[in-house]
Amino acid sequence: MKNSHQTAGELANKALSDTTKYDALEVGHAMSSDIEKHLYESIQIYKPMINEDEFCVVMVIATDPLIKNAIRRKFYCWPYLPSPRPNQAVFLYNRHLDKITKRLWVLPSDMVMAELSSLPVVDKRYHTMQAWSIAFFTGKFWEYIRHESNVNLPSEHEYFLEHRDELIKAGCKIPDADYTQAFDFSKIQTNQIVDPKTPIPS
Questions:
Q1: Cβ count within 10 A of residue 145
Q2: Which of 76, 72, 35, 84 is nearest to 56 (CA)?
Q3: 61, 160, 174, 182: which has the fewest C-beta neighbours closer than 10 Å?
Q4: Number of independent structural domains in the chain
Q5: In a domain, 59, yes or no
Q6: CB count, 10 Å around CB of 114?
Q7: How does pLDDT run across 99-125, given as a tens digit for each residue?
């Protein structure tokens, strides 16, 4: 008896051969329709492991390294502000209220971030995303997010420094002192963003 369950590879090949034209807005709504459910599932998993009253719930969209047209959503929680990256959404969860209270930021793909940050005028729907993208490229991301959302959560590195002793006792590796130097975002130019699907010569 043939197994009716299709593998991810088989589904990807089927999608490649599909010539149907889909509305991008409908696809976006379909992808985001169950995000809240997965965010709260992640909260239930991580809540016993995080002692903070408020913590970040993160969703990232990643391509599959083996299946070209497969996209995966990953959900997890951090007790600090995660490092910003393309295709990332971050929310704030309050333990006492037992709910997500704020959307901290939503960053689009790297190419869209670069375009938004370089355009002088964008549609008002993209004003907030443009501001996040500009803050990312100018190295002012944490300052902007904290001011905009009125949060005082530490960044990942700040959290490690604040809890250094207890983390060392728990067996965690603390970054070297050199790591405290802030990355110079001004070195990144818009035209230096590399399309991850473009082959890079060895």
A1: 21
A2: 76
A3: 182
A4: 1
A5: yes
A6: 21
A7: 999 999 999 989 999 999 999 999 999
